Amino acid sequence: MNPTQTRIRVACVGYTNAWPLTRHLDPALFDVRPCVPSAAARMLNRGEADVGLVPVASLFDNGAKWRIVPGFCIGSDGDVDSVLLVGERPLEEWDEVVLDGESRTSVILAQILLRGPLNRADLPVRAVDAGTGAFHAQGRTGAVVIGDAARNLPDRLTTRIDLGRAWKDWTGLPFVFAVWAGRPDLPVAAIDGLRRAGAMGLPERASAPEAERTYLTQHIRYDLDDRALMGLRRFVALGQASGLLGPGELSLYAPPRSLPRASMDTVLSRAAAGDRLTRDDAHALCQSAPTPELCAAADERRRAREPRSHVTYLMAGNLTLSNLDERASALVAAKAVAAILQPGVAEPHTLASCEAAIQRLHAEYGLAVTGLGADDLVGLALAANTTPEAAMARLVAAGLDGFGGAPTRTGAAARPVWQAMHRLAGAAGLRGPATLTLGLGERRDQRIDHLFDLRAFQDEELATGRPGFSAFSAWTSLSGTPGADDSAQAWLRFIAVARLVLDNVPHITAWWPTVGLGAAQTALFAGADDLGPILVDEHIVAAPGLSWTTDPEEVEHHLRVAGFAPMRRDLDWTTLTPILDPAPGTAGRYARF
To answer: What is the mean pLDDT of the chain?
Structure first.
C-alpha cells in the first residue's frame, strides 16, 4: 500500500447481500470503488485496491498472498436464493452448462457439485460474459446465475437448483461465497473499520423491505465463525483436489485481542510468530492465556509448519503377545501398515518372545512393527541378563521399525531412563513419539517442565544427527484420581502449549482414544496435525462407561467436516497417501461425502 495514501481503497460489489457489510464504511477512512466480484479480485491483483469483498476462489489465483479479515463474510447455511443452476429442462436432460463469469467461487462450486452429488460430471462447461447466464440458459443448456439476477429469473427457467442448499445437503456445512481480503500490510485501523461497519449494518437488516429482509436474514449467513471456516476449508480441499483451485492456504489477519495483561499479549504474539518460548512464557500461557487465543496461536504455528490442508493418520493398531495372531489378522484385513507391540502386563514375555513376534509380524503378516518403550526395553534386558544396548541390537536385528513413545510420566526419576533408552533407539536409526499421560498426580508446572525436557533432548539428538522424536502426543489417564486435571479442556490447552513449546518436534498427534474423535477434531485447530494410529484395541482405554472405537470411514468423515483432506501415512511420515472422497451414492454411514 502506498504510504502517502490518505484513504484505504476498497473494491466491493453492489449486490443486495453486500450492503449490510458496506453501507457503514467510514468515508473518512475508506475510498469505496463499486465493481462486480471478479473485478474486485482483479483490482487487488493490480494494486488498484487495498482490500476487497472478493469471491473466496480468488484467494488462490496466481499465488495471491491476501489475508482474510475475520468476523464477517457472505455465505449461506442452506438455501442461498441467489446462486443457482437454472435451465428450461431438468438437469438430466442438459447437454452443457454455461458459467457466468461474475464470480469464480460460484462457478467452481457448481463444477464441484456437478462432479459430486448432482452426478453430472459428464456435462461440458463453457464460460460466458458476466451477467449473461440466464440469457444462455435455453433448451438443453443450463447456466449458473448469481446475485440479484438469480432472484429475478424469467418464468421459462423452471429448473432451479440452489447451490447453497446442495452444498449443505452434501457436506452438512455452511458455504462461504465472499470475504473481505486484503494485502498483508493492511493497517489495523482498516481491519477494525471493516468489522465495525459489519457490526453496525447487520442489525439494520430488520428494517429492510420485506422481500430483502427475508433474503438477508434467512438466506445469507454473515458470521465467519468456526463452522463457516470449516465449510470454507472443505471447499478449498475439494477445489484443489479436483484442479479447480490453485495451491495455497487460507490466512486470516490476527483478530484483535482483549487480554488481561500486556505481558500476556506479548507472549501470545511471540508464540504465534514462532519465537522460542522460555519456561516462564509457557507457564504464563498455561496458567492465564484465554483458551480461544491460546488455540489460535498454536493453530497459526501448525499452519506455518504444515501449510497444506491435510491431516494424517496411521493405519495401525496395538497387539500383545497373547493375542498376536487374532489381532494381526484383523489388522491385515483392515489394510493396516503397522502393528504396535505392547507386551501385556499379566502375560509372560521375554526378549526372545518379542524377537519372535517381530519376525512373525514381518514374515507372516507383512506389518511394520513399533512399540516397546523405554521401560519395556529395560525390563526385557534385565530378564535376559543382558544390557539395554544388547537388547536393542537384538530387537533391531529382528526387524523392529520404530520405538515406543517416551515417556508417559513426568519427573526427575523417569528422565534418565527414557533419555538413555531413546538415545539407543536413535543410534539404531529408530524414531518414535514423545508422550505424556495427564492425570497421574502431576502438577501443571511439572507438565510444562516435561515439555522443556523433551525440547532439550530433541535439540541434542538432532545436533548429533540422530532422528529424534517424530511427534508428540498426550492423553488423559481416565484414572478417576480426585483433583486430577485431566479434563478435555485441560488436554486441549496442553496440546496447544505443546505445539508452541516443541518447536523442534515436527508433528503433534491428537490422541483420540481417551477423549473421543470430537475432541481430537477440535485439537486440529489448536496445533495438532495428526490423529495417530486409528485401529486401536478398545481395551487400551478401558474405563467404567467409556470405550472409544473408530474406523477409517469415521476418521475421514471427522476430518472432512472439519475442512481437512484425509491423508494416510507410514510410521515416519515418509509416505503420504491422499484419500479421495467417496463417489456419490457409495454405501456407508458417511456416504454423502
So the answer is: 85
List, as one string, the DSSP characters of 515-527.
T-HHHHHHHTTTT
Classified as helix, coil or strand, 373 is: coil
* 345 sits in which H/E element: none
Closest listed residue to residue 510, CA positions, set 312, 249, 369, 338: 312
Q: Evaluate whether 561 touches 172 at the Cβ level (below 8 Å).
A: yes
Reduced to 3 states (helix: H, G, I; strand: E, B; else coil), residue 182 is strand
CA–CA dist 83, 110 (Å, integer): 9
Query: By C-alpha distance, which of 400, 402, 484 is closest to 446?
Result: 484
Length of the chain: 593
| 3-class SS of residue 360 | helix
Q: Which residues in 448-457 are b (16+ Cβ under 10 Å) and which e?
A: bbbbebbbeb
At residue 543 the predicted structure's pLDDT band, cuts being 50, 70 and 90, is very low
CA atoms within 13 A on the CB side of 123: 26
The whole-number pLDDT of residue 483 equals: 47
> Distance between CA atoms of 168 and 235, rounded to whole angstroms?
12
Q: Please, where are the H alpha helices in 464-526?
A: 488-501, 517-523
C-alpha cell read off for 299: 493453530
Summarised one tens digit per residue, pLDDT across range 493-516 is: 999 999 999 999 999 999 888 788
Going by DSSP bridges, is the β-strand pair 565-569/576-578 parallel, antiparallel, or unpaired? antiparallel
DSSP calls for 59-103: GGSTT---EEEEEEEEEESS--SSEEEEESS-GGG-SEEEEETT-
Q: Which three cell numbers stand for residue 394?
A: 537384538
Q: What does the pLDDT look like over 393-431, one tens digit per residue?
A: 999 999 999 998 655 566 555 678 888 888 999 999 999
**pLDDT at residue number 587:** 40
Residue 200 cell numbers, joined: 453496525
Is the torsion defined by CA of 257, 261, 262, 265 positive or negative?
A: negative
Please give the grid coordinates belonging to residue 16. Answer: 443486495
What are 421's three cell numbers? 533408552
Cell of 330: 484383523
> CB neighbours of 289 closer than 8 A, spacing ≥ 6?
259, 264, 267, 268, 297
Place of cell 461465497: 177
What is the rounded average pLDDT of the residues 9-37? 89
Question: Which amino acid is present at 73?
Answer: C
Instruction: Give the pLDDT band of residue 31 (cuts 50, 70, 90).
Output: very high
**Taking a C-beta distance cutoff of 8 angstroms, is the pair 133, 99 a contact?**
yes
Those residues whose C-beta lies under 8 Å from the C-beta of residue 61, and which sit 6 or more positions away, are 41, 45, 104, 246
- 262-305 pLDDT, tens digit each: 477 788 888 888 899 998 899 888 888 888 889 999 999 998 88
User: Which structural domains are found in the chain, ordered by start?
Assistant: 8-75+174-241 (3.40.190.10), 83-171 (3.40.190.10), 279-578 (3.20.20.70)
DSSP 480: -
Query: Is the previous residue joined to 348 through a cis bond, with omega within 30 degrees of 0?
Result: no
